[in-house]
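Possible race condition, two jobs.
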Amino acid sequence: QVQLVESGGGLVQAGGSLRLSCAASGSIFSINAMGWYRQAPGKQRELVATITKGGITNYNDSVKGRFTISRDNAKNTVYLQMNSLKPEDTAVYYCKSILVNGLTSWGQGTQVTVSS
C-alpha cells in the first residue's frame, strides 16, 4: 500500500504560478507511475498529467505548455509546476499512484483557486 500527501495548493491570480508536491510513503518500490488529477465543482475528475517510473510524461491537452510534471526519486516526491494559470484551472488537485500490480492510491487533495 502507498500513502500520498499533497501540498502546495492555494489562491493565485490568473497568470500566476503554483507548484504542487506529492510525497509518497509505504510500498514506494512498487510504484509504476504517478499522476495528478483534478476535479472542479460539478465536473468529473480528469487527468492532468502522469509520469512513469521511467520518466515518460503525458499531459491533458488543456495544460500542455503550461504545466510540468516531474519526480524526485530520492525524495519519493512528484511535483506539478503550474504556470500561466487560468480561472478554469480552479479545482481540487489529487495525486494518484499506480503500482505494478495495478492497485491505485489517492491523496486527500489540495485546493487550487485561480482568480480572474
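Job #2 (started ~2 s after job #1):
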Amino acid sequence: QVQLAESGGGLVQAGGSLRLSCAASGGTFRIYAMGWFRQAPGKEREFLASTTWSGGRTSYADSVKGRFTISRDNAKNMGYLQMNSLKPEDTAVYYCAATYTPTSEYGTWGQGTQVTVSS
C-alpha cells in the first residue's frame, strides 16, 4: 500500500518561492504517475501538475505553467513541486497524489500541506 506525505508548506510573501516535497513509501514500484493538487477554502480541488514516475513526462495546468515545476527522484521515492513567483491566490492546502495506470484516477493521497502567500 503506497503512502504519501507532503512537507515544505508555510508562509511566504508574494513573489517568493517554496518547494513542496512528497515522500512516497510502500510499493512505489506500482506508481504510474504522481500529481499535485490544491484546494483553497470554498473552492474545488484543482489539478496543478503531474509527472510519470518512470519516464518523467510532465503536464501542467495553465494557471501554474511557467511558475511551478514538478519533478521526482525515483531513487529517493520523492516528488517535488517547485513554486516560484507565488501570488496570494496560490494560498491553499496542497496535496500530492498517486495513480497506478495511465487511465485510472488518483487513488492515493497525502494529508496535505498548507501554503499561505501574503500580499
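The radius of gyration is 13 Å.
Logs attached separately.
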